[in-house]
Amino acid sequence: MSTKLILSFSLCLMVLSCSAQIWPWQKGQGSRPHQGHQQFQHQCDIQRLTASEPSRRVRSEAGVAEIWDQDTPEFRCAGFVAVRVVIQPGGLLLPSYSNAPYITFVEQGRGVQGVVVPGCPETFQSESEFEYPQSQRDQPSRQSESEEFSRGDQRTRQSESEEFSRGDQHQKIFRIRDGDVIPSPAGVVQWTHNNGDNDLISITLYDANSFQNQLDENVRNFFLAGQSKQSREDRRSQRQTREEGSDRQSRESQDDEALLEANILSGFEDEILQEIFRNVDQETISKLRGENDQRGFIVQARDLKLRVPEEYEEELQRERGDRKRGGSGRSNGLEQAFCNLKFKQNVNRPSRADVFNPRAGRINTVNSNNLPILEFIQLSAQHVVLYKNAILGPRWNLNAHSALYVTRGEGRVQVVGDEGRSVFDDNVQRGQILVVPQGFAVVLKAGNEGLEWVELKNDDNAITSPIAGKTSVLRAIPVEVLANSYDISTKEAFRLKNGRQEVEVFRPFQSRDEKERERFSIV
């Protein structure tokens, strides 16, 4: 009996150890904090914040990437890199991975997302719409053939024929739509296809200071397809020649060297690729290397028909997998722990709001509690909707920097830093990003058209502390302490403490006449 227990315990340790080596994404697991957290700490001496728009544009065949200037005090302090990607209908954002984790918010449109997780099985299968060449599948047995091909080559062709007959197998793909939050750890390959009728627009925030980034403060995307470095330089040269005389267009056509690199396969020699990818011709090898490819990293897909399960089918498949692992089915530990994690969560559903005020607005939060994979990349998001003239805040982040990206409307924002001085007091509008450092207090007031934004934060369970309202810090302090702190009467301190019964999202102030009109309109 004791021997069985020892063997079982040893097996558990072995599985956990292997899983940690294959998937070192836990907080601090097999990694160290990036030097950027210490090296660039002095850059958080913020004197003034700016609500900014993209400063560079990189065009491709079927879309464009718009990149924010990361060389500003607030972006350097937070270690953020922000990119907005617009994919035209039918466009395909080529497969790539990054040296830093990131989180993406889908602002507009619908599409299909693919995720390739190392070590996970190919659980999706589609019906094959192509046939293995008859001449290669049913070749007659001849003596000359045995002289030309070895038995190993014949077995390879037989295996290929069987693979063709079974259809295409791949890792999970899923539908995406506006309001979806999609995370990605460093090194995980993702691709996006716009199968809708409108542009697919998303905003992505990279965390360059993450412990997963072992390089430097620059974020790099490594593409598995697309143009080579030479093709990219030729393409840029052609554009500069074509746009000569227009300084603005010339600036828009400049590429961000660190963020949008070329096809990594373009650096390998033909002989190596031919040895690795057997039974493909020289033309295919050239296309793998992206030779003479001028399409960019968002290409127009042709005849791309993907069988994507509906959401209820995904849930059913996940439940079946859970029941199987709970019974006598086999599981390798890695699959159970990581391969079945969800890679998206929608934050644009009022029914799932964490905070809701029918007269002011709502807050939807996605963190590691409802999307567990965020624990491994230490990022989270919050979607806020304010109605006409409603107010959010003042509040601060306890443990995270945040980037506020405005998705609709306009409004006024005030941010106050540690010196008790306003570092931002201005209006914001759709398409702008405002970075708010940790601990800085912020208040937002919507305009006449309302205000919506998404906050992307560099902690998987970012916590905010409101200064006013039912759950505020002032509400938790005794009245006598408030009276002595502000040198006011206990009566005024009580009013200060209990003046707002709402939670974080406040309806606008109403005069007596406005209240009367509202009361009669309800009746």
UniProtKB/TrEMBL annotation:
<dbReference type="InterPro" id="IPR011051">
    <property type="entry name" value="RmlC_Cupin_sf"/>
</dbReference>
<feature type="region of interest" description="Disordered">
    <location>
        <begin position="126"/>
        <end position="176"/>
    </location>
</feature>
<dbReference type="InterPro" id="IPR006045">
    <property type="entry name" value="Cupin_1"/>
</dbReference>
<feature type="domain" description="Cupin type-1">
    <location>
        <begin position="345"/>
        <end position="494"/>
    </location>
</feature>
<dbReference type="GO" id="GO:0045735">
    <property type="term" value="F:nutrient reservoir activity"/>
</dbReference>
<protein>
    <submittedName>
        <fullName>13S globulin</fullName>
    </submittedName>
</protein>
<feature type="signal peptide">
    <location>
        <begin position="1"/>
        <end position="20"/>
    </location>
</feature>
<keyword id="KW-0732">Signal</keyword>
<feature type="compositionally biased region" description="Low complexity">
    <location>
        <begin position="133"/>
        <end position="143"/>
    </location>
</feature>
<feature type="region of interest" description="Disordered">
    <location>
        <begin position="311"/>
        <end position="331"/>
    </location>
</feature>
<feature type="compositionally biased region" description="Basic and acidic residues">
    <location>
        <begin position="230"/>
        <end position="253"/>
    </location>
</feature>
<keyword id="KW-0708">Seed storage protein</keyword>
<feature type="region of interest" description="Disordered">
    <location>
        <begin position="226"/>
        <end position="257"/>
    </location>
</feature>
<feature type="compositionally biased region" description="Basic and acidic residues">
    <location>
        <begin position="311"/>
        <end position="325"/>
    </location>
</feature>
<feature type="compositionally biased region" description="Basic and acidic residues">
    <location>
        <begin position="144"/>
        <end position="176"/>
    </location>
</feature>
<dbReference type="InterPro" id="IPR014710">
    <property type="entry name" value="RmlC-like_jellyroll"/>
</dbReference>
<comment type="similarity">
    <text>Belongs to the 11S seed storage protein (globulins) family.</text>
</comment>
<dbReference type="Pfam" id="PF00190">
    <property type="entry name" value="Cupin_1"/>
</dbReference>
<keyword id="KW-0758">Storage protein</keyword>
<dbReference type="InterPro" id="IPR050253">
    <property type="entry name" value="Seed_Storage-Functional"/>
</dbReference>
<keyword id="KW-1015">Disulfide bond</keyword>
<feature type="domain" description="Cupin type-1">
    <location>
        <begin position="49"/>
        <end position="286"/>
    </location>
</feature>
<dbReference type="InterPro" id="IPR006044">
    <property type="entry name" value="11S_seedstore_pln"/>
</dbReference>
